[in-house]
Amino acid sequence: MNTINIRNYLKTKVGSNIVIIYYGSRNKKEIYKGILCGIYRNVFTIRLVNGDVKSFSYVDVLTKTVQICI
Q: How far is CA 49 from CA 34, 35, 55, in A?
């Protein structure tokens, strides 16, 4: 799998509910819930439940820093 495949897959899911699990340093895990709202060249964005917009890169998905649950 590469970044182009991830981007193309996420293009079909725009507007869907999504859960992002971000694995940070020192075994910290952050969970974000929202709606997939934007697909760009190097990043994708989600609109969180509280209205904020958060962006993640496709490379983070490849390196398993970010896990996507749709």
A: 5, 8, 14
